[in-house]
Amino acid sequence: MSTPQKINKSVGKPISRVDGVEKVTGKAKYAAEFNVPDLAYGVVVSSAIAKGKIKSLDTSDALALDGVLQVFTHENRPKIAWFDISYNDQDAPPGSPFRPLYDATIKYSGQPIALVVAETFEVARYAATLIRADYEEATHETDLEANLHKARKPKSGIASLLKPPPPKPRGDFDKVYEEDPNKITGRYVHAAEHHNPMELFATTVVFEKGGKDGKGKLTIYDKTQGVTNSSMYVSQVFNIPSDDIRVLSPYMGGGFGSGLRPQYQLFLSVLAARELKRSVRVSLTRQQMFTFGHRPATVQNVALGALEDGTLNALCHDATGETSQFEDYTEIVVSWGGMLYPPKNVTMEYKVVPLDVYSPLDMRAPGGVTGMHALEVAMDELAYNLGMDPLQLRLKNYTDIDHNEDRPFSSKELRECFRQGAERFGWSSRNPEPRSMKKDHNLIGWGMATGIWDANQMPSRAEAVLMVNGKLRVSCATADIGTGTYTIMTQIAADTLGMPMEDVLFKLGDTDLPFSLISGGSWTAASVGSAVQEACQAVGKSLLKLAKKMPASPFKGVKWEDIEFADSHLRLKSDQSVAVSLQTLVDQNGGKAVRESVTSLPNAFKQKDYTRSAHSAVFAEVMVDEDLGTVKVTRVVSAIAAGRILNPKTSRSQILGGMVWGISKALEEESAMDHNFGRFMNHSLAEYHVAVNADIHDLDVIFVEEHDDIVNPLGVKGLGEIGIVGMPAAIANAVFHATGRRVRDLPITLDKLL
Ligand code: MOS
């Protein structure tokens, strides 16, 4: 037997991205970069009005241009299956999903009204400018605050499983709040925001003759957070056998939730490819990024009441969010206070106002960052009202029980987040007095807030194959939305079979691979990670069987519990010199690879009695220019408890990204709607402000140790969203401490401080 080479475990180590070189050298291809011969290009024409009808559409000038192949409109579109069935994608809110080119009706500004397809992109783009549309305008309503009287309860549907309505009221809020010696109340208005990933939305459809129904086979490169979602959409909407559709998305240039639903460029490119029997690409522009899905504008009211000693005993949180006329998009905005704090008298309500806009769409920590901003600013205000330190108020009302569900958390190291975060930040030397710290003409402020996000696990499949050359190939149709999925799955697989990472290849983003749901909600590490671990364990079990069959095998009668995988060997735990290499074992398999597929399901029996959440404590320092009202976030410490940290390097990057976006959300991001036109006007990165390098200063991330064997066998909670959640409130509270101004609306632009 060979002498094993020592291989260190990779989980828990700061491993660089396995896809890093591909990404930074431009080798990683995105949806619009897959070139095929004879590709045609589609450009979308968008509606100029927000509501009404297309009276006439003149496409003749466009069609007359050399190189224009076709202009698709509602007048000449083929009959499409989904117009007869009701279809929901994996992230569809209750209602009826938007149907591009359905008829002459305009439901929102920017709605696609035509697709021009030409031999070149340039001709298509020019031809699109020649389309003349005449509209019959109707009065639109796009202003949430002006339409609050229309607020109603959202309809329920399948999406409500993950976004349950707020819990029923408990206790007697009105009476207790009335009698409380300390109380505060406030109204919080948030602007709509748009995801602005660097990679724009695009689909390249490669058309081949043939297929089960003879109408062609499609290979689709789509910008998506879930290839299976895109595939199911195309299959059902166009009534194409799923065997004739393969969707790929090996890389994604940022998603943040915008890729959780199939967007209209997918529909239009497939339609054109099928009709023209040709490969087609449709790319949307940055402006068109603002014509589907956004974080909804919201109005929230929070009231908190407490006893003299700071005991919180009354909590009221209600929120109203905008939605479209065709779907009831909801998010969990108001339920967090009942999870995080123990008041006995609670009312929470969430309502929607349907407007003439596209359906809102999940955007990083949907609802969480919204609701926690209001709640945690209210907590700060209450602390001032009580004359109590804001951190002490949180500790006074600390609980290990989720009072909404009346069950404990599977783990909650938030207290440790507070302790470590406060210490690193130097919170104890804070003078609570607003405007007490000054440097030249700058006011300095320190603020803190708590963050919380769900730790979910979804069903997922995975396959592991120990190939004849001794290398391991693991796969799943999940996504790497830029967060490190490739890397952590490679680590998990390598460690499970005791192999070096270089011998493991993880594949994703392809519907030919085992099924997985959309990658979102911070659940990919837990869901796909568990599947990868189980698939590798299944290979391990097959290897043990092979080991037992070897002549004079020392493994006869040995149980799974008695062995371990290390240094590319299977060996006895009790006597590590009894070992056989994985290569030797696969050689016993009659020239075949050892292949196992598993479906990994959450352990509902173990999970059902617990609430599973990640937590954070955020401490922020701001510097506010007294003359100009500009805010600079000079320093932030974010202490995170999110279970096991698989990779401190990619994890820290995730949290840093959330913190940067938190600064952006607190101070800059706002999709400005001109209600006269019903259109988002700042639809470019020049006018839709996001944080840039100059806005980002000292960011510090602490991962607090947290063990949890209830969430999933890996003990991971996911990090996609928790990084942003506490940020806006911590910054808003720091702004109050600096200036004495309680700004409750976001973003905190300088006009609100002058
Ligand atoms: Mo995230 S908003 O679930 O992509």
The residue-averaged pLDDT reads 96
The CATH architecture designation of the largest domain is 2-Layer Sandwich
Which sequence of strands runs across the widest sheet?
A: 3-5-1-11-8-9-10
What radius of gyration results from the CA coordinates? Answer: 27 Å
Tally of helical segments? 18
CATH superfamily of the largest domain: Aldehyde oxidase/xanthine dehydrogenase, molybdopterin binding domain
Q: And the CATH topology of the largest domain? A: Aldehyde Oxidoreductase, domain 4
Q: Main β-sheet, in a few words?
A: 7 strands, mixed
Structural class: alpha+beta
Any ligands, ions or cofactors bound here, and which?
dioxothiomolybdenum(VI) ion
For this entry, what is the oligomeric state of its chains?
single chain
What is the approximate shape? globular
Tell me how many strands there are: 30
CATH class of the largest domain: Alpha Beta
pLDDT < 50 stretches: none
| Proportion of residues in β-strands | 15-25%
Ends apart, CA distance between termini: 77 Å
State the helical fraction.
10-25%
Question: Number of folding domains?
Answer: 3
Detailed description of the structure:
- It contains 18 helices and 30 strands.
- It has three domains: 20-27 and 458-601, Aldehyde Oxidoreductase, domain 4; 34-139 and 197-285, Aldehyde oxidase/xanthine dehydrogenase, a/b hammerhead (Aldehyde Oxidoreductase, domain 3); 146-194 and 294-456 and 608-752, Aldehyde oxidase/xanthine dehydrogenase, molybdopterin binding domain (Aldehyde Oxidoreductase, domain 4, 2-Layer Sandwich).
- The protein is 24% helix and 24% strand.
- The N and C termini lie far apart (77 Å).
- Dioxothiomolybdenum(VI) ion is lined by residues 225, 255-257, 260, 362-364, 366, 520-521, 720.
- This is Xanthine dehydrogenase, molybdenum binding subunit apoprotein.
- Pfam families: Ald_Xan_dh_C, MoCoBD_1, MoCoBD_2.
- One of its GO terms (molecular function) is iron ion binding.
